[in-house]
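note to self — DONT lose this again. spent like an hour looking for the file last time. sequence + predicted structure for the chain T wanted, 89 res
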Amino acid sequence: ITGAKSDADYILTASEYSNEIIKLGWTGWTTGKNVVVPTVAGAKWVIHNATGQTATVKTSGGTGIAIANTKHATVYCDGTNIVRITADT
């Protein structure tokens, strides 16, 4: 996902979160923000953060995990929250 985004939390679209590997590669954030994914139990993603800031991947009503800039991690949804499978690498 590239291009310029507003300096606000970002909600992934269906075409974006339908991918198993998601690279967050946009510009526009000045501080860490949330990337909101759907609450779908068992959904799993590899997230690569290249936004220049920390990205916290979370569901709209749950908690999430922070992924540092230039790092990637594998995460899944437990039906409420986003849970880390791997550490940032």
